[in-house]
Give the backbone structure.
Amino acid sequence: MQYNKYGDDFNVDDIFVTQSITVTETHVVNWASLTMDFYCLHTDAVSASKTIFKERVAHGPLIFGLAVGLVYIAGIAADSVIAWLGVDNMQMLKPVKIGDTINVTVKVMDKRTTSKPDRGIQTWKYTVKNQYDEAVLVFDYKMMFHLREKKI
């Protein structure tokens, strides 16, 4: 099968930046409804106003999901990914509030082949930044990629 991109097209230290999205109340309410996470810090303006954040903040897993989606719609990996293998070193560094605008910087950290010559594994560092260019979430995203078959 022919693919538009392959894991071979990425090199360690390559960097990509996505477009931005503003996190809205609709995102937060829909996420709470989807996941049943109605914790007051996210959904109750009065309770949240009494916290250290002084207002509602977005769910951390919502920001993770938006980051994955932003990278997808940027078309960086296109159709080269076979499977998601997991995430490591996830840290929420700052709160994301309703009205904040985020984007993702992706850096290729590691790549290796597998025992199958048409597959490779890569780790990409995702850094989610807010409108002030502050990192709010970081994680290492591991994926399996299609590789071009080497003809001997």
Remarks:
- Residues 117 and 152 are 11 Å apart (CA to CA).
- The chain has a mean pLDDT of 96.
